[in-house]
Amino acid sequence: MNNTRKIALAVAAVAALGLGSLLWSSNAEQHADAHGKDDDHGHAETQATPAKNSGEDDHDHQEGAEDEHTEAGHGEEEGKLTLSAEQIKAAGIVLAPAGPRQLGTVVSFPGEIRFDEDRTAHVVPRVPGVVESVQANLGQAVRKGQVLAVIASQQISDLRSEQQAAQRRLELARLTFTREQQLWQDKISAEQDYLQARQALQEAEIAQANARQKIAAIGSAIGAAGGNRYELRAPFDAVVVEKHLSVGEVVSEASNAFILSDLSQVWATFAVPPSDLNKVTTGRAVKVSSPDMNAEVDGKVGYVGSLLGEQNRAATVRVTLTNPEGAWRPGLFVNIAVTAQSAQVAVAVPESAVQTLEAQPAVFVRSVDGFEAHPVSLGRRDGGYVEITTGLQAGVEVAASGSFTLKSELGKATAEHSH
Considering 65, 139, 165, 402, which has the largest number of Cβ atoms within 10 A of its Cβ? Predict the structure, then answer.
């Protein structure tokens, strides 16, 4: 190979190396540019991300504000029930106006139901004898004049014999007087005989009247047909509350055979200490109630004792009660509420309108679209009404009957919201 050819090959190799170096530099710059763009894009994304998070925070803040607004709106609706007029009628809710009313101050005393002593009789035999029959049992209702028992008495026989003898002596004395009077008028006998006959007649009349009064003192209990029978009869319509005799028993005038009481009328008695006597006077209105029987009746104080009891140092007070059904049984413990004084209150509602919400009394006030619960403070009670001292104005309508239904519905609504 000549020198010329060698030089040409060397020049070609140098040119190839220069072109390769140029191509490598161009590719490196493009890669660097591409990497720089990627870095710039990544940086841009990095800076855009906080902006997006800030927007999300603003959105979350707005949602929180809406939630707070929603909760605040519900807080304003608490205690309210939306009901139409048809729903109120279907639920049986009755409205009553809140307004002024005359209410009394009540003082309560424990008491007891007792027999009306004016209508209670201790039936005793008026003559001694032996019981032949008993026709009334304990607890039996008897009518006036009904035979309770029959007693055979020797005294009845003696009284009848005495009456018959007096009657015969009277008849004889009357005949003697008539004869002696005629003889004296005819101047046949002396005036002394006539006067003696007249005196004997008068004595016979006295004896006969005395015998008749002894029989009458026993009463109509002696049979008109005669004999020695004495009948114990009921003095009025009553119930046999005690019985203390049996067939064959010997009784006397001191024997307490029966105790009868007219239970259609009873007494409610209670003891009043001296400190309260100025509040309990004759004619004062009372309410007698029995928690065991769930019953209540109105009455008036009929008697206030003038003396204090030796044991309790209190005056006995009684109230007369009608008892047509016999529900007020003697021995029953009762509560007696005496209306001490009455006064005009500004706002009063029926007691049935008051319900307890969250351990506080409340009433349901009629609103445009339903009812709203109003917490209230209570005062005196009387006659089924209660005073509202705070929390309610006069003139509004409240749910009287059916207020418990509203309380139940309000409880359901509150429970659903909590879930």
Answer: 402
In SS3 terms, 286-298 reads as EEEEECCCCEEEE
List the beta bridge partners of residue 348.
Answer: 99, 387
Q: What is the pLDDT of residue 160?
A: 81
Residue 189 shares a structural domain with residue 242: yes
The strand pairing partners of 402, in sequence order, are none
Do both 301 and 227 map to the same domain?
no
Joined together, the tokens standing for residue 311 give 């044991």
| Residues 6+ positions from 334 with CB-CB distance below 8 Å | 110, 111, 112, 113, 268, 288, 289, 290, 328
| Among candidate residues 277, 267, 274, the one with its CA nearest the CA of residue 338 | 277
pLDDT number for residue 47: 41
pLDDT per residue as tens digits for the range 263-297: 989 999 999 999 888 888 888 888 899 888 888 88
Residue 252 C-beta-side C-alpha neighbours within 13 Å: 1
H/E stretch holding 349 reads strand 333-350
Q: How many CA atoms lie within 13 A of 98 on its CB side?
A: 29
Tell me: do 276 and 289 sit in the same domain.
Answer: yes
Number of domains into which the chain is organized: 4
402/352 Cα distance (integer angstroms) = 8
* pLDDT of res. 81: 80
Pick the closest to residue 342 from 109, 108, 106, 100 (CA basis): 106
Question: Do 235 and 279 reside in the same domain of the chain?
Answer: no
Are residues 48 and 7 located together in one domain of the fold?
Answer: yes
**Distance between CA atoms of residues 296 and 269, nearest Å:** 15
CATH of the domain at 292: 2.40.30.170
Same domain for 170 and 246, yes or no, is: yes
| DSSP annotation of 237 | S
Regions of the chain with pLDDT less than 50: 1-3, 8, 10-11, 14-76, 225
Q: Are residues 384 and 270 in the same domain?
A: no
CATH of the domain at 214: 2.40.50.100
d(CA 330, CA 132) in angstroms, rounded, equals: 32
* Amino acid 50: pLDDT: 41
For residue 353, the enclosing domain spans: 83-102+343-418
Q: What angle do CA 400, 403, 408 make, to 5 degrees?
A: 180
Token pair for 347: 């706002």
The 8 Å CB, 24+ separation contacts for 275-280 are 276/107, 276/109, 277/304, 277/315, 279/107, 279/338, 279/340, 279/341, 280/107, 280/304, 280/317, 280/338, 280/340
